[in-house]
Amino acid sequence: MSNEKDKNLDDLFRKKLQDPVNEAGFREEDWDSLEEMLDEKKKRRGIIFWLPVLGSVAALLLLFLGWWMFRPQINRSNTGNSVAVTSRHTKTNTGINGGTERQPEGVKQSNPLPESHADNSQSGKSISGSKSFFTLSAKGTRRNSGNGSSTVSGTPETAGEGIAANNNKGIAGSNKKSITTNNKRIMVAAGPTYDFNSGSISNQNVAAVKLPLKNAIIAVTAEPKVKVKSTFHPQYALTVLAAPDANGVGSSFQQSKLGTNFGLAFSVDVSKKFTISTGAVYSVKPYSAEYGQYHINYQPAVTPTQVIADCRMLDIPLNVGYQIYNKHQNRISLGTGLSSYIMLHESYTFNYADSYTSPTHFTVPNSNKYFFGVANFNATYEHRLNSKASIMLQPYLKLPLTNIGYSQVRLQTTGVAVGLHWNLNSLSKP
Amino acid sequence: MGEEELHQLIRGCIKQDRKCQKMLYKAFYGFAMGICLRYANSRDEAAEVMNQGFFKVFTHIGSFDTTRPFKAWLGKIMMNVSIDFYRANLKMAYTDDLETAEHISDNELADRNLNYNDLLAMVQQLPQAYRTVFNLFAIEGYSHEEIGEMLNINAGTSKSNLHKARQKLKQMILNADATAKNTNYGSGTGYTPIVALNAISMQGIFLNKGIRG
Q1: How far are the Cα atoms of A93, A260, B12 from residue B17, in angstroms, in the given order?
Q2: Partners of residue A45 in chain B, C-beta under 8 Å
Q3: Nearest chain B Cα to A37, which residue?
């Protein structure tokens, strides 16, 4: 009997609940939340799609770094070539004007310059006609395949993506090679004849460096432009930043000193995740190190025990950031890139075991530029205040790829930048 | 919705076409919600569970065998999602005392004019473990063995939970009866105006006819 009753109860519920007379009405907000879930999934897929690209970017970077590690040896082996300065200039000119000169394989050390010019002129032209993200790769392919710089403007799309690694390296590489070899050689040339009192490197030499440098900058800054064109809605932002940092020489920060930096950065969101940024940061970098870590051509009569240096420089970074987190008002991204140091002023104080020994001080007021001589690694936390402004906290690490400054030290820096980030086109595209 | 139309929608959903997804969602919203509501504590929770179900539907629609009825497939997904959603709560022990409500008779059950919303509210008031077993046994028609397997509990626990669910429901029906008696005229006033309107319109027709005649 009890079972019968239970069955009736079950039946009552089954009949009524299985056939709702008034079904729950459709609510748009329910669909909205489902749509959000589906979009989220797509996004995740997007990341998976980007993984190979990210992987290749990382591989590229490694290749590039690897190349940089080996580069100084090549330079050193060429330092004997002191006549190269003048011959290089004539070649430079032909490179710029005609751009047709072909470099044979196994080019001698003095030749990379025209090669880089050929690259530059190509990159300049291909920007105008390109839509593809991988346009940059096109330049290199053409160069590699042996087409002269005169035959540009074609179809950049034809270039395979796979070649990107070589190409980027090729472009960046050739430029930098030429520049840094210049610098190196100037350093070396100036070294033996260096006059302590005049304290400057011959202006002519510096001027000679300037011309190729300009081109190098054009070639590099062209990079973001191309990307901007190829993506949907680039967003521009300006950041004012200040950063205390610790500077050390060698492999540790043990003897590190506190430096100050302040400057401006300009960034472009080239896609939802990627940001390219550049800027100018004025840095005061004091550091101290054992004398052995310096490579100064000028040799004081008595070997100092310690050298305290104070460098004023302009740091021009070119970084790529990848956003790993973006929720609510907070964004976290990881970035890497290269910095160029333009030395404005260097002063060195020597400390001796015997406190009366001289010289104790010397300055290098007008010194060199180190293009892409420093690798940047940073993580950025950004908190949005409103649609236009956000505050930024950025721990960073700068590792030297070349020896920096007149004293040729491996100066590394770590610090935290604090900044105010301003969206330039937030009105047109929130 | 016609069979052809449904298959067209499903094909669209396989291509991840957002419009087709929305149409399918809208078309089966009521049905899916009907299932999820029975397992959930509230409408909002049911909507959340249902969306998880639809998310599964849209992501796995490629594996759906189009020769089989879609509604059954969807229903099963909704049921599984509901069970999964509350799985953590299923093993919770309830020590509440059950009032005996054995004396309720068949007639009493039949007489009570309980509608869908009343019954749904009662089921939703059940503790999770009772509600799930009651749903699976009384409404979906699974055996205790099957339920035990699905919920990862003993068949005995299933039986006991079902019994407790029934006791609670009976009690709720009795309580509802008591409150209905207290506010007895609720339904009466609801129907009266309609009856009156009908009467007036009938009269009007009749009167017209009378004049013409």
Answers
A1: 58, 54, 5
A2: none
A3: B55
